[in-house]
């Protein structure tokens, strides 16, 4: 594959607390702020707490999920007196870190998240820079979407991805999860410095999970209340192939609901924040992406 070149990653934001109760990112960013981290080698770093009122309240968000507010459509909607807080904050962040799609935008936003699901360390991305050199212990979730429709905070930068680590209950800090995330952040900053110094990263095949669909909990059609929970045999088995006949839910009267679709990989199983989104788990296909060799564009 042909070599792909990018200009240096000079301006980078590490963002935490986009969801206010996902505490690994909140405390990693706070610690970077406390240590006045501003420059690491060739990379200027801005550690930013994204949703302060939600962090103070230890909630995912105050009025609206901030990490769904960064589509071109929402960013171009004029604000009014009744606009939710998070939409105002999205516009503010777009001015600060973007504007999305403009030459002034940050070179990279790396956004830090936790999940209550047993997903380990995942990179969620729709660009092709960092993952080329990821160690095999990381999982990569590839979001096949256009930049304009991408709704996450990292989409305002030229390149962006989220680091998602779990399991960790929201509002709780676990040192093992904190360390996994911190290592991934350090690895990223290290990669950027090597890239800026002219290292050519060889491409190759990268195994990625691409979301196919979401599955909701069984619900009472009249009240919408759950009638079943995630089955114990599915719980904590993120990224393990789900086959026809495998148990997925257990009803409160004791019946097992079995899976009936095609073979796919479940992830975000029983994520706390997704009950309101009517998602019990996502299902993904495993695919191979071919990553080109990547190098610094010399001007
Ligand atoms: Zn999150």
TrEMBL record:
InterPro entries per the UniProt record, alphabetical: AspA/AstE_fam, Aspartoacylase, AstE_AspA_cat, Aste_AspA_hybrid_dom
Major localization listed first in the record, in broad terms: membrane
Keyword Membrane: yes
Needed cofactors: Zn(2+)
Subcellular location as annotated: Apical cell membrane; Cytoplasm
Record's bilayer topology term: Peripheral membrane protein
Enzyme Commission number(s) from the entry: 3.5.1.114
Positions annotated to bind Zn(2+): 19, 22, 113
One matching Pfam family: AstE_AspA_cat
Residue numbers annotated as active site: 164 (proton donor/acceptor)
Keywords tagged on the record: Cell membrane, Cytoplasm, Hydrolase, Membrane, Metal-binding, Zinc
Occurrences of domain Succinylglutamate desuccinylase/Aspartoacylase catalytic (ranges): 10-189
Similarity-based family: Belongs to the AspA/AstE family. Aspartoacylase subfamily.
Protein name in the entry: N-acyl-aromatic-L-amino acid amidohydrolase
Naturally occurring in which organism (per UniProt): Neogobius melanostomus (round goby)
